[in-house]
């Protein structure tokens, strides 16, 4: 790579880090409840945990062979409702309203079709960075 290529790479890295600077650190459940095999890379080789979290991503270097800096699970209204879709256990019935689901002390998210929209929450005691 020539000097122009190196400069271009440096500019791209700086712009990427600037874009990440305004992001919010994800919650512990958004990071620890994601199956390592489902991680989508959110960083670059050599990224530190501080840089990764500053970009709104999760960081976990304990598992080899998967991305260490990765996209978090989507934010939910309550921390106990953050989970992979495959972990949802049905707490309602087709067509249940958010109000009736909440009355059952369950989580509601209708963002993904053909999965339980009203589902049981999980304890947050297992969540960690």
Structural descriptors:
4 helices; mainly alpha; two-stranded antiparallel sheet
- Strand arrangement across the biggest beta sheet: 1-2
- Determine the fraction of residues in helical runs and give it as a percent range: 25-40%
- Beta-strand residue fraction: 5-15%
Largest sheet: 2 strands, antiparallel
Total beta strand runs: 4
Low-pLDDT stretches are: 6-20
Q: What global shape is seen?
A: elongated
Class inferred from helices and paired strands = mainly alpha
End-to-end separation in angstroms reads 37 Å
What value does the average pLDDT take?
88
Helices, by number, come to: 4
Oligomeric assembly: single chain
N-to-C SSE string, H for helix and E for strand: HHHEEHEE
- Rounded radius of gyration (Å): 18 Å
Written overview of the protein:
- The chain has 129 residues and is mostly helical.
- Helix content is 27%, strand content 6%.
- The protein has helices at residues 3-20, 28-32, 49-54, 98-103, and strands spanning 58-59, 69-70, 107-108, 118-119.
- The chain has a two-stranded antiparallel ribbon with strand order 1-2. Strands 3-4 form a two-stranded antiparallel ribbon.
- The model is unreliable at 6-20 (pLDDT under 50).
State the gist of this model.
With 129 residues, the chain is mostly helical. The longest helix is centred in the first third of the chain and has 18 residues, at 3-20.
Per-chain topology:
Blueprint: H1 3-20, H2 28-32, H3 49-54, E1 58-59, E2 69-70, H4 98-103, E3 107-108, E4 118-119
Antiparallel strand pairs: 1-2, 3-4
